[in-house]
Amino acid sequence: MQNKPKFSIITCTWNSAATLADTLDSVLGQTCRDVEHIFVDGGSTDGTLDMIAAYPGNKRVLRDVGGGISRAMNQGIQAARGDYIAHLHSDDYYAAPDVLAQVDQCFASQQVDWVYGQVQVLRDGRLIAPYPLQPFTYRAFAAGRAWVGHPAVFVRKRAFERVGLFDEQLKYAMDVDLWLRLGAVARPGALNRPLTVFREHAGSLSTSNKIKARQEEFRVRRRYLHKAPLAFGIYCLRYLKRMRDLRAAPAP
Predict the structure, then answer these.
(1) pLDDT at position 57, please?
(2) Residue 81 in contact with residue 10, Cβ under 8 Å?
(3) Which of 78, 95, 127, 212 is the most buried if burial means most Cβ atoms within 10 Å?
(4) Average of pLDDT values for 153-168?
(5) Within a domain: residue 1?
(6) Does the residue 2 lie in any domain?
(7) pTM score, whole prediction
(8) Which UniProt keywords are listed (predicted)?
(9) Within 13 Å of residue 183, how many CA atoms lie on the same side as its CB?
(10) For the purposes of burial, counting CB atoms within 10 Å of the CB of 126, is it exposed (0-12), middle (13-18) or buried (19 or more)?
(11) How sure is the predictor about 1, in pLDDT bands with cuts at 50, 70 and 90?
(12) Where does the pLDDT of residue 208 fall: very low under 50, low under 70, confident under 90, or very high at 90 and above?
């Protein structure tokens, strides 16, 4: 039996051949090699599975996983053998070769159950400077003042065993729901640097999708208002303003 890896990187794919190469290269290029790469494929019919088959990394493939992105991410978590778990989607990639090494050092030095950093956006072929990383407190996150970008989050597997997996009924705000559960019992370590590049695409720019995502996020945050009622009130004011701005925005 192979030794248990330190990192389990989970990549959900579905007809991802156009962007997957960057994802694969960024994992292969890491200076930390103690990695298993788990692919959760939703039934690709382009060249995605051929690319994964040719990929020389330490890999496993879960095929024909349906039921939405939350279920796919959970399937990857359940299959993972590593100490630290991250989801690197097939249109994202790590920002530098030392990302995993830096995350490993943060886990060791801060003795935390999860670590997060900055996400850099790739828009029209140009990298956008990331937002400054705000210090995490539960109230700051509940109020919407601190932001945790899913592509730049690493979680100890034992933490999932403590708080549960992603809510498979959610389509947009499953990460916010998990951070609200996880943040209530364990403060994260933070790396004030870009860890992951998120490739902005047409779907992510859709005003309709943004409105649906905001509405679902509001419902998720309302679940936890008893943990930080004043912070939730502050979030409500931000939510009303953002929804007004979204509805007033011209179509892209």
Answers:
(1) 86
(2) no
(3) 95
(4) 97
(5) no
(6) no
(7) 0.94
(8) Transferase
(9) 24
(10) exposed
(11) very low
(12) low
* DSSP structure string for the chain: -PPPPSEEEEEEESS-TTTHHHHHHHHHT-S---EEEEEEES---SSHHHHHHH--SSEEEE-S--S-HHHHHHHHHHH--SSEEEE--TTEEESSTTHHHHHHHHHHHHT-SEEEEEEEEEETTEEEPPPPPPPP-HHHHHTTSS---GGGEEEEHHHHHHH----TT-SS-HHHHHHHHHHTT-PPEEEEEEEEEEE--HHHH-HHHHHHHHHHHHHHHHHTGGGSHHHHHHHHHHHHHHHHHHHHSPP-
Residue 89: domain span: 7-248
pLDDT tens digits for range 179-202: 999 999 999 999 999 999 999 876
Nearest to 59, CA basis, from 131, 9, 112: 9
- CA 207/CA 188 separation, integer angstroms: 31
